[in-house]
Specification:
The chain is α/β, with parallel strands linked by helices and 336 residues long. Helices cover 48% and strands 18% of the residues. The longest helix has 35 residues.
Length: 336
């Protein structure tokens, strides 16, 4: 090959390289995401792969997609932005834009919400979603406005049940037992109304409390029972479904008020879609957690509807204490 052809080939190679660089640059420019108009933080206290966190990420993705990248929501899980109580306080002033919190935490600031988490008011999961997805649930979402928040949608957190070192088949079996409860007056009063002794113990210390004989039982949902391996120290799980405490997706009213009507409608739509997604994930997680516990040799006790009614009948004093002035709405919820 003579010098001339070598030169032609070299020049052609340079042009080809330049062309490739130009094309790649144009492709990258087209793929480049637009700068968002708003960037908001979303607070989540659960782990990265927990159903509520996955639901939050799904919500953020939907909002980004449907606003054409103008609104970007960054989900901070593992309580990176503080405890649920701290997050709620910050949201009042716009310090955090979005969050998923337990209704029990929000009820500390809006006591009228307590009625939604009273023991034994829901006969099933379907019953609770009829209530929350209907006019009653909408009224309580609007109630968040009393604390400078905007209610968006309801997430699932399953049903809480008793688990213990000895079987619980009926109300009488609880008499004299010491039952660990979360730091909630409602839960403590519920256990006391059933004839047991409530013990407020930090969640992380429940396993050792069983080992040391400080408690005879505790109460929680299937995923918590399984993930903390409580099935190793409390082999009886009684499905009484005493409480179904929903989770609530909220937005700071400071942030909400700065958004256009179109953006608000989009965010509300995305929040409700993400709620349905999270509920499916929760049902799958609950099923797998129960299977794991059963494979480890626990005994599952399913209460009859008649026995569940006896548990419910024992709650009259609790209802009167926490729902004074709301007995009508309590009755409506129970019969919805």
């Amino acid at each position: 090959m003579n010098i001339r052809w070598k030169s032609i080939i070299a020049i052609a190679s340079v042009f080809a390289l330049i062309l490739a660089i130009v094309i790649a640059f144009e492709i990258n420019e087209k793929k480049k995401e637009p700068d968002p108009e708003y960037v908001f933080f979303y607070a989540e206290n659960q782990s990265e792969n927990y159903p509520t966190t996955l639901g939050a990420n799904y919500f953020a993705d939907l909002v980004y997609e449907r606003t054409g990248g103008r609104i970007k929501i960054l989900v901070k899980y593992d309580a990176q932005l503080g405890s649920e109580s701290e997050v709620i306080k910050q949201m009042r002033y716009g310090g955090i834009a979005f969050a998923r919190v337990s209704l029990s935490q929000l009820a500390e600031y809006i006591p009228d919400m307590n009625v939604l988490q009273m023991p034994y008011i829901y006969s099933s999961s379907e019953h609770m979603w009829r209530v929350l997805d209907g006019e009653i649930g909408d009224e309580f979402l609007e109630m968040a406005g009393d604390y400078g928040l905007t209610g968006l949608s309801w997430y699932d957190a399953g049903a809480r049940n008793f688990y213990s070192t000895k079987p619980i088949y009926k109300v009488e079996d609880l008499q004299g037992m010491t039952i660990r409860v979360q730091e909630s007056e409602v839960m403590a009063d519920m256990v006391a109304a059933l004839g047991a002794h409530p013990a407020k113990i930090v969640y992380s210390e429940v396993y050792s409390a069983f080992e040391q004989g400080l408690v005879d039982g505790a109460e929680n949902n299937w995923p918590s029972y399984e993930s903390m391996k409580h099935y190793k120290v409390a082999t009886y799980y009684t499905v009484d479904e005493h409480t179904r405490v929903p989770e609530i997706q909220i937005c700071s009213s400071v942030v909400w008020d700065m958004l256009s009507a179109t953006d608000r409608a989009t965010i509300m739509e995305c929040a409700k879609e993400s709620a349905l997604y999270e509920r499916r994930l929760w049902a799958e997680r609950e099923k797998s957690s129960r299977l794991t516990a059963e494979q480890n040799g626990i005994t599952v006790i399913e209460l009859s509807s008649e026995e569940k009614q006896r548990f419910r009948d024992a709650m009259s004093g609790v209802y009167n204490k926490y729902c004074k002035g709301q007995m009508d709405i309590l009755g409506k919820i129970m019969n919805y």
